Structures are given as structure tokens and as C-alpha cells.
From TrEMBL:
NCBIfam families registered for this protein in UniProt: PRK11007.1
Cell location: Cell membrane
Protein name listed in UniProt: PTS trehalose transporter subunit IIBC
Residues of the PTS EIIC type-1 domain: 1-345
């Protein structure tokens, strides 16, 4: 794991530019205080993931929480400190004839997912074979202990390597020689991914990028795709400005899209007419090209659409604002132009 992304209260060295936190003690204090929340979210992420998996799979959620806590316990070497710690200095559980590294998995997605699914299937297995009279004791104990052992001996190290490999590949695509091509493809295909539900996989990649590189260049393009689809709906609002019935769907869909929720806009408007959806994809691709060309990076994920600028690192807010303008103007102009030719009203 690479360097940790600290709050902006740490003095900026980028071209001698000072942040608001550098020049104002009040905002420095606010930033430091709010980092309590940020640290809880990212450092304790495995807890949330393990709980979520057990809830989704219908097994004991409290066991998932405990498993997640064993991955981020204060007894373990913090994952952010592993890279700067010599191999000989990493603490170990010593069982005499073998040892296990005491390494935490703060902010790690894949190790937590692998551990959680192991817990789920072990619990289901033991519930199936264990007599009901002793299941209350045997099932939780055996499921949790075996899951923790497997997590720290096998799944954790493997998951870490997989996660790092994926983030390295994506980061190379975003920052390498062909990053413009990568950006164009990602910006164009993200909206169709939303239709299939496959877009959820990007969250894990984003989290891994944040953990490994202190920020993600993927999330800004996702936010721009939201805006682009909303702008296509805005074009339909203009084209159908005299159609009161259509506006009852168009206006709320556009607003929700600009706030980061694209499904109402895509399924209720853009896919219905087809061409606004394509116009939004084109605008998203162009905005994504500018986004990766300027290395626009977000500190976190979660805030999409226009509010997505709040998650952008201060040094890139201006470039993201430019990308937002592209994502607003291009789909709107294309949708209106194509719509007029088709006689949409």
C-alpha cells in the first residue's frame, strides 16, 4: 500500500500554493475534525464490507462486523505503514514452527470481500451439518475462527495483491501514454454499464485507487457521465417545452441526474428516445478526455453529478469545472440539434 491521503491541513507543497487550511486556523480545525469521519469511513471500510456481504447473503450480520474488525484491529500493523516498515520489523503471531504476519487491511476492498464470502459459506455449511441443540455455540465459533485464520493467512495477502494489481492497471490506463484513449472509452461506455448494473464494480476500483495512490481519477469521469446524461435530458426539456405531460418526467429526471442519480433520466427519458442517450455518451467521452488529460483527481467517492466537484482535490477543481461545462454544453447542443431534425416536440 502506498502513501496515505491525509486531510488538507498538511501544508501544501504544490508549486508553493497554499490551501485554505494553510492560511486559516479555523478551516484547518474544521478539516482536521471532519477527517475523523473520513478516517472512520476509509480505515474501517472492511467492517462495512463484511457487514454488507453477510446482510446481502442472509447470514449473521454481527459475525460480519466482528470479522471486519479483526481486519482493522489496533493490534495489527496499520496497512498504511506496511510499505515503510522493514520485513524484519513487521509484527508476527509466533506459533513456534510457523508465523503469521500481523498486518491490517485498512481501506482494502478485495481482502474484506473474500473474507466475508468465506464467512458466509462457512456459516451456511456449519448450520447445515450441526445439530440444532449446539448450533448456537458451534456455528458462530467455528465460522468466525476459521474465517479469521483463512483471512490472515491466505485471502488477505492474495486479495491485497489482486487489489493492487487492478489499481495499478487502471492507474496505468488513466495516467499512461494512452490515457486519452482510456478516458474516451470509459466516458463513452460508463452509461451503458449503469443499465447492466456493472457500474458498481467501479466503486471497488475507486476505493483501491484511493488506498494505493491517495486519490482516484476514475470517479471524476463517473460524475461527468452523470452530468452528461442530465444535460441530454435538459435538451429534451427544451425540445418538449410545450409538452406539459413530458415535462412532468423530464424536469425531475434532469434534477436527479445532476445530483448523481442517473437511472430515472436514462430509463425514463434518454433510452425512450435513444438519441439523447447517445448524445450524453458522446458528451461524457469528450469531458472524460479533458478530465484525464488534466489528471483531475478526487479525494473520495460518493458525491456524483454537479456536487461531485466537492470531492475533487482543490488543485483540480478548475479543470473539473471546465469538464463539467463540456458535459453540460455538448450533450445539450447535440440533443437539441438531433431532436430538431427528428421533429421532436
Amino acid at each position: 500500500m502506498r502513501a496515505k491521503s491525509w486531510p488538507c491541513s498538511e501544508p501544501s507543497t504544490r508549486s508553493g500554493i497554499q490551501t485554505l487550511c494553510d492560511i486559516s486556523q479555523f478551516w484547518s480545525g474544521v478539516d482536521s475534525f471532519l477527517w475523523l469521519i473520513g478516517e472512520a469511513i476509509f480505515h474501517m471500510l472492511p467492517v462495512c464490507i463484511c457487514w454488507s456481504v453477510t446482510k446481502k447473503m442472509g447470514t449473521t450480520q454481527s459475525l460480519g462486523i466482528v470479522l471486519g474488525l479483526t481486519l482493522v484491529s489496533g493490534q495489527l500493523l496499520n496497512a498504511y505503514a506496511v510499505a515503510s516498515t522493514a520485513a524484519a520489523d513487521i509484527p508476527k503471531w509466533d506459533f513456534g514452527f510457523f508465523t503469521i504476519n500481523m498486518i491490517g487491511y485498512q481501506a482494502q476492498v478485495i481482502p474484506a470481500m473474500l473474507a466475508a464470502f468465506t464467512l458466509v459459506y462457512l456459516e451456511k455449511f456449519f448450520r447445515k451439518i450441526c445439530p440444532a441443540v449446539i448450533s448456537m455455540i458451534v456455528v458462530p465459533f467455528c465460522s468466525l475462527v476459521l474465517s479469521v485464520i483463512i483471512a490472515h493467512t491466505v485471502l488477505g495477502p492474495i486479495g491485497w495483491k489482486i487489489g493492487t494489481f487492478i489499481s495499478d492497471i487502471v492507474y496505468a490506463g488513466i495516467s499512461g501514454s494512452f490515457r486519452v484513449v482510456f478516458g474516451a472509452i470509459f466516458g463513452f461506455v460508463y452509461a451503458p454499464l449503469v443499465i447492466t448494473g456493472l457500474h458498481h464494480m467501479s466503486n471497488a476500483i475507486d476505493m483501491q485507487l484511493i488506498a494505493d495512490f491517495g486519490g482516484t481519477m476514475l470517479w471524476p469521469m463517473i460524475a461527468l457521465s452523470n452530468i452528461a446524461q442530465g444535460s441530454a435530458v435538459l435538451g429534451m426539456i427544451y425540445l418538449q417545452r410545450k409538452n406539459a405531460a413530458a415535462q412532468e418526467v423530464n424536469v425531475p429526471s434532469c434534477i436527479s441526474c445532476y445530483l448523481g442519480v442517473t437511472e430515472p433520466a436514462m430509463f425514463g427519458v434518454n433510452l425512450k428516445f435513444h438519441f439523447p442517450f447517445i448524445c450524453g455518451m458522446i458528451g461524457s467521452a469528450i469531458a472524460a478526455v479533458v478530465c484525464v488529460a488534466t489528471s483531475t483527481t478526487a479525494n473520495a467517492i460518493g458525491v456524483g453529478g454537479i456536487p461531485g466537484i466537492l470531492s475533487i482535490q482543490p488543485a483540480y477543481m478548475l479543470s473539473f469545472a471546465l469538464c463539467m461545462a463540456i458535459a453540460i454544453v455538448v450533450p445539450f447542443v447535440l440533443t437539441v440539434s438531433v431532436g430538431k431534425k427528428k421533429g421532436i416536440a
